Amino acid sequence: MLYAPHVTRTIQLLEPSSAATVVEAKASGDALWLSKADLAAATGFELKPEGLCRDHLCYPVPPGREAEFVRGDEVNVAAFWRHRGGAVAASKSGDVWVLGDAEDEQRSRFDTLEAPDFTLPDLSGELHSLSDYRGRKVLLATWASW
């Protein structure tokens, strides 16, 4: 990765079903450190004594590897995401990070044939979520400039 290490920067954090802007993220190599508050706001995961938790699901921090995942009030989101089986990618400048679903989450969607929820704006800026159309047929046309 080409961006300067340990630089506090504003980043875009993208997940399959959400996007967030994090103002004070710290990128260093393949690590992305967020405050506990930013982690919760951006991903829904919280650092608890039992591990990193979202809803009823908790991932324990591997014993002996605590420093790789937690540093004071910060959590290495990239290391945690990889630990839970998700893919992590960053732009060359380090200002956009993408967190992919964990393998078990992907597998469960294939079993149900249910597309992941996402929200996108239409041409007038109104937001539409795929979940708003559950049970109805939807045609999604996409385009990219690259």
Count of strand segments: 12
Report the structural category.
alpha+beta
What portion of the residues fall into strands of 2 or more residues? 35-45%
Spans where pLDDT lies below 50 across 5 or more residues: 1-5
Rg calculated over all Cα atoms: 17 Å
Fraction in helix: 10-25%
Most strands sheet: 7 strands, mixed
Ends distance:
21 Å
- The tally of helices reads 4
Order of helices and strands: EEEHEEEHEEHEEHEE
Envelope shape:
globular
Main sheet: strand order: 7-8-3-2-1-10-9
The pLDDT mean sits at 83
Please outline the helices and strands:
Elements (H helix, E strand, L loop, with lengths): L6 E9 L2 E11 L2 E5 H8 L2 E3 L2 E4 L2 E3 L6 H4 E2 L2 E3 H7 L2 E5 L5 E7 H10 L6 E3 L5 E3 L17
Parallel strand pairs: 1-10
Antiparallel strand pairs: 1-2, 2-3, 3-8, 4-5, 5-6, 7-8, 9-10, 11-12
Describe the protein.
The strands form three sheets. A seven-stranded mixed sheet has the order 7-8-3-2-1-10-9. Strands 4-5-6 form a three-stranded antiparallel sheet. A two-stranded antiparallel sheet has the order 11-12. The relative contact order is 0.15. It has helices spanning 36-43, 66-69, 77-83, 103-112, and strands at residues 7-15, 18-28, 31-35, 46-48, 51-54, 57-59, 70-71, 74-76, 86-90, 96-102, 119-121, 127-129. The protein has 146 residues and is α+β, with helices and mostly antiparallel strands. Mean pLDDT is 83; it is low at 1-5. The protein is built from four helices and twelve strands, in the order βββαβββαββαββαββ.
